[in-house]
Structures are given as C-alpha cells and as structure tokens.
Amino acid sequence: MLPLSTAVAGLRARPLDQRYGRVVAVRGSLIEVEGLSGAAQIGARVTVATAAGPIEAEVTGLDRGIAHCLPFRDPQGVAAGARADLAAEQLALRPSSAWLGRIIDGLGRPADQRGPLLLGAQTRAIRAAPPPASRRARIGARIETGVAALDLFAPLCIGQRLGLFAGSGVGKSTLLAMLARWAECDVAVIGLIGERGREVQEFVQDDLGADGLARSVVVVATSDEPALMRRQAAWTTLAVAEHFRDQGLRVLCLIDSVTRFAMAQREIGLASGEPPATKGYTPTVFAELPRLLERAGPGAEGSGAITGVFTVLVDGDDHNEPVADAVRGILDGHIVLSRRIAEQGRYPAVDVLRSLSRSLPQALRIEENELRLSARRELSIYGDMEDMIRLGAYKQGANPAVDRAAALTPRIEALLCQTKDARASAARGFAQLADILAT
Questions:
Q1: Rounded distance, CA 54 to CA 64, Å?
Q2: Which family does the entry's similarity section mention (predicted)?
Q3: Long-range pairs for 342-348 at CB < 8 Å and ≥24 separation?
C-alpha cells in the first residue's frame, strides 16, 4: 500500500474539477464536441472515449460553443454522445541524451520496438517560439558536410538554414542521409514527415547506417497518419533539436519534407473551416512556415546552434509553386536538385548554378571563393551553349571561351559526382578544382 502522505500528495496534485463534453458530430476526421465552452482553448488536448479505447485529439477551432477537434489517429469508432475529457496540461516532451539512436513518433513515444524512452528532467513545450532576434548569436564558421557540391559551391555554416528543393525521385533523401552521417555536428535530429512507411527502415538501416543513427534522434510520421500527427512530428523535431541546442551542442536538424508539413497544415485548416487561398493552401500554412523554420538557427549567446536543412518537394518540378516560394524567402539559401542532372547519372544531382548559400562569400577563404567563381563561370558558359554543342551547331574554335568551358565542364562534373558511401574532403576538392582550372 502507498503511504498516506504519498496518497495525499497525489490527490492534491489532481485538478479540483474535470471538464468534459460530448461528441455531437463527426465530419470526416473532424470531431465536434459540445460542453467545453469557457474551458477549451486552441491547442488544448481532448481524450475521446470509444469502444476500442481512448483517442487523443487536439482543439483546432472554436465555433459558438462547439470545439473542433482533430485526432492523432484514425477516428474510427467515435460515436455521437461519446465523452470527451479536457486535459489539464498541454502536450510536452522530456527529451534526454538517452534518446540518441532512437526512433520516436510525433508525440515523443518510442517507435522502434526498443522499449520505453528514458525521460529527461526538464519538460519542454513541443510548440515554442524561437529565441528573440536581439539575443541571437550570428551564424558561425563553415562546417564540412562531406558532399563536394555543397562544400565547394554552397557551403553550410553553423546555425545556417538551407532549403533542399527537388522533385520526387531525384535523390534528396539520400543526400540528407549523407549529411546526417558526415556533416560536422554533435547531434543530428531527423524528421521524416509524411514518408512512405516502407522507406523508413530503408533510410535508417541503409542510408543512415549504424554510425549515423548512433548520434541521431529520428522522428517519424508516415503518410498514412492523420494530418495532426504529421504536423506534430515537425514540431517535435524542432523541440528535440532545441533541447540539445540549449546544452551548448552543435545540432544538425534535417526535415523531409516541409512540403508535407504544409500539406498537413492545409488539411487541418480546411477541416477547421479556413478558406483555401493560393493553390488551395490556407492562410495559416504561410503563417506556420516561418514559425517552424525560425526555430532553427543560432541560439542565444553562449548556447549552441541548430543548423537546418529542410527539403521542399516541388510540385511538378515547379520551383515557383507557393510553398517553395515561401520557404525560399525564409531560409538562408537554397540547394536545387535537378532531374536533368539526375537523368545524366550524376549524383548528388545538385545544380550548382541555381543553388545559393547566403553565407557567401564570408564562408570561404579568398582563394577558395575565387576558385568557386571561376568554376561557376565555366559551367555557366557551357550551360548557355550546351544545346548548340550537342546538336552540332557550334564549331570548335569559333569561341575560345566556349572551347575552354566545353573541355573543363566534364572534369568539374566528375569532381562533383560521388556515391552515398564516399565522403568528400573540402580541402582536397578545392585542390582538385584548382588543378582543373589551371589547365
């Protein structure tokens, strides 16, 4: 039996009253609950009773005494009149260093069949504000990623946020895994948002590998899960990254993909009655994107930093579609993966002419930046004349600059080509680039 003092303390810790309502309607995935007026707030948790067990939900809208709730799993089994209890506390996490090497879901629960998670002492809100702009440190020194195309042409710095823009099947997940294994950081936090279920184990076991997983926390919400869980997984990814940042560590935060986070927010907004705006995306989508992405970056002076790489799945290879355009304006640079380059067999399929890092030119030494600009110039000249050269419309000797570019471009492209198991060295890459340009 429990000691009397323990029982008294437990009773005192419980709320004096328990607010609950009743389900009055279920419309698709939206559960409407009556009886929570004056108590339910946006973001509050609700537990709906069903014959198969309770379902956790979140209040996403309020309308004349009706609370609009979206569940964290399939609402199958919810009946009219079912009891809906309002939770006393907001959803929160208690991350710890013991989470390294683990796979969790959007609610911070284990998803790898390896037993319960060891919880930390500090409770952290899943949805949090970024550090105040006036207290944030500046972007730090360059970090070596092990990917030649990035280290040579679009360097990544501590606390910087890059967008990885690509269509489906161009190799963005493989590139993310290369960054997770090789980039200079203390901890990697990886969010797989809306991924295909079968690809999760392939990513963890084949692409990430045992060494990459050992220093990583992987947050997973597959494409079949409700929109609320997919959105929650993105927030959880940043919350875990913030935990390690506040310990003074250099954190690499990878999210694949921001587009699926936006799609989840669109589903939530439409279910709550928001009007569709740009290409069907609701206004809250474009409000939530900066709130999510701004959480990455340098921390306050004296703390660590979150270096972010966020993939954007461009619809129909249209890099000007609404989500891509909005994300590009928020982040500190963009990496473009080209389907044309992938079809030519060069991986990673980074289009260096369309990619940009806003840490340049400060991220590179003067001589390195001169090599980068010279190589870009040769690639640009060849790109302008590539179609004519392939069609045979250009005759060699007509323009010395084009002749030089045509000779050097294949060698530069070969330098940028690497397999997912071959780590590149930035110093060796610049040395090879200097040799190529010296000919």
A1: 26
A2: Belongs to the ATPase alpha/beta chains family.
A3: 342/169, 342/170, 342/171, 346/413, 346/416, 346/417, 347/171, 347/174, 347/417, 347/418, 347/419, 347/420, 348/147, 348/149, 348/171, 348/174, 348/175, 348/178, 348/416, 348/418
Question: The tokens 């389907």 sit on which residue?
Answer: 339
**Per residue in 122-156, pLDDT tens?**
899 898 898 898 899 999 999 999 999 999 999 99
What is the Cα–Cα distance from 144 to 326, expressed in whole angstroms?
Answer: 28
Strand 305-313 and strand 161-166: the pairing is parallel
390: its two tokens: 């392939």
Under the banding of pLDDT at 50, 70 and 90, the label for residue 12 is low
Dump strand ranges (E) for 150-262: 156-157, 161-166, 187-195, 216-222, 250-256
User: Which has the minimum average pLDDT: 44-48, 146-150, 270-274, 434-438?
Assistant: 270-274
Instruction: Please tell me the distance from the alpha carbon of residue 99 to that of residue 215, in angstroms, as a whole number.
Output: 9
Cα separation, 421 vs 99, whole angstroms: 26
Contact between 110 and 126 under an 8 Å Cβ cutoff? The reply is no
How confident is the model over 273-303, as pLDDT tens digits?
Answer: 889 988 889 999 999 999 999 999 999 888 8
